Every structure is written in C-alpha cells, then in structure tokens.
What does this fold into?
Amino acid sequence: MSKIRVLLVDDHAVLRAGLRMLLNAQPDIEVVGEAADTREALTLACATRPDVMTLDLTMPGGGSIPLIERLRQDCPQTRVIVLTMHDDPAYLRAVLAAGGRGYIVKTAADSDLLTAIRAAFQERIFVDLQLGEKNTPAKTESYTHGAKSLASNLSQREREVLTYLAQGHTNQEIADQLFLSVKTIETYRARLTDKLGLRTRAELVRYAQGIGLSGLKNDVGLQTVE
It folds into this structure.
C-alpha cells in the first residue's frame, strides 16, 4: 500500500522535527520534505508533488493564503491542512475559501492531526476549532460544526441562491428559477458575501461545495467561475 506523502511547512525547526517523528512513525504516512517559508514551500511542492501539505498560517516569504490559492493551480493534487495557533473563524473562512482541506489549532491532540491528514487525502475536510470553548472543540471527519455554523446564519432564500451559484447558474438563471428579479438576486449575493466574509463568486462556490450545499463534489482541481 502506498503511503500518504506529506510536506511540512513551518518556520519553527523544532516543531517540524516533532511532526516528522510523529508522521514517519505511522505505517501509512511519510514526510517527503520540509520548508521554512512559503517560497521554499511552493518550490518543494512542485518538485515532490506531496499528497498533503501541513502549513502554518503565519509564515515568512509571503502569505499562506496566497500559497494555498497558488497550489490549486500549480499542484492541484496537493491538499493543504493549515496548522496554526489562530482559533479565529475568520481565518477558517479564508482558508476554506482559498481551497484548504483542513484547519487544526496547534493545541489539538496528535490524533486530530493524523485524522486530518488521512481525511484530506481522501478528499474530505477536517477542522478543529476551539472558538472560545477551549475544552469543547467542534469537529467532524467530513466537515466541522464550526464551519457549518456560518451557514446556519443564512436565510432559506440565501441558501437557495448560494446553491444555485455553486451549480454555475447566472444571476438571470437564478432569478428565473426563483421567480425574482435580477436586482433581488444581486442583493442576496451581496448579503451572502457579507455574512460569510467572502469576496468572489469562486469563493462562494468553494464554500458551498465544502459544506455539501451545492450537491457537487468538492474536488481540489474543480474549476469555478468568477
């Protein structure tokens, strides 16, 4: 059985060493490289083509979010799991919108990281967010209660519009389906971007796919329309 090939990206050498020991001790995982900044991470990812990358959110050499977006283009087979000290849901939204497959706080158990790596390899999303309830992390193997709670703030009509957007419909087509005006659909789209903290149609599409709202498979290489 082939092993899950992992690239470690963190600017702390001691942390990388600990992660390498943990992952290489697993029968189904192997570390294929380490990087201390985002530029090196991109170079190594293109060279080694890892299955999964663990990525610190705050890195020298450029932002981690742009790196995730770049990897979707240059190394679409590499699933990114963010490993960070930040437990702010705003960061979670940004990571998922960029195409990240996991979000783990560094205070999580070792077993959570292992589960996240295996889930990402199988095209699932795993998040462990404390969100202020430090003793009660919200997590599931397929997705997270923390991420889905963002969608719970949407009205039924907003969820319908989001679903149609994720399925590739234009504003006019959505208006026709829901018997509304195009201007009304544009208003719902503006509310969606505001409530979810997302900017573009592509981000809305990836978010909807991530929570299973669109009915479409959330493949790493799936192309979306702006």
Notes: The chain has ten helices and six strands.
